[in-house]
Amino acid sequence: MTDTIAKLDEAQLPGLEARLDPKPEWQPRYPGSRRLKGKVAIVTGGDSGIGRAVAVLFAREGADIVISHLEEDEDAQDTARMVEAEGARAVTIAGDIGDRAQAARIVDLAISSFGKLDILVNNAGEQHPDENVTDVSDQQLKRTFQTNVYGMFYMVQEAMPHLRAGAAIINCTSVTMYKGADDLLDYSSTKGAITAFTRSLSQNLADKGIRVNGVAPGPIWTPLNPCGGASEEKLEHFGESTPMGRPGQPNEVAPCFLFLACEDSSYMSGQVLHPNGGVVVGS
């Protein structure tokens, strides 16, 4: 983290998936078809939750993976073993993507380990619920934007010298960007910025043959929720407000990232997919 932003209590940040009960479902649901054979992908926040499911699914489809995470070493090593079990290669790197130097280190690791970069998945993020807008401190506001928005800019900027025509960037936004969230004011604001960034960047990079799309998950069972400050009552009824009446699992979101990363979506850029339990929102 840059020295202008103090570190928050780590208990408020994305926690260990190994401690969750029940465990999120990350396992790919079908055999691979080598749609990412020979590709190299960076997955930020790849240690757990949606990031873990994406990393393992990409590996099943033939990609080697750089797993970026904050400080959850146990989860990251577990994900690396899962990737390797699929016959792919994995490297992990810890650090705060809100620091430009860390973004550079992540990209440098991809190039030094695998020689190239084809896919950038900007998945890492954090949230801190507050009941009132006046409860959002300067420290929290800066931190949330630093991680969720600045970190994404940094990763794209550092990756650009290595991305070629045919490359894909997939950014994780959220259903909260579309329907709002009364207790996640700063978080939902960052997701609005991410969606605008995705649409604008897609136009900026179209002539380079680089596609940029987004995924806007609804309530998904990951460490972000219990470790991000959600109340026990909210967790007890987590996801029940969706038309499907339940939270989603990471392995129900990962196929959206795969579709946007591979040639199946070759005529799509600037778009957002919505694995959100049936909530109808504007595109």
TrEMBL record:
Oxidoreductase among keywords: yes
Signal sequence bounds: none
Transmembrane segments: none
Keyword Oxidoreductase: yes
Sorted UniProt keywords: Oxidoreductase
NCBIfam families: PRK07231.1
Family label: Belongs to the short-chain dehydrogenases/reductases (SDR) family.
Protein name: NAD(P)-dependent oxidoreductase
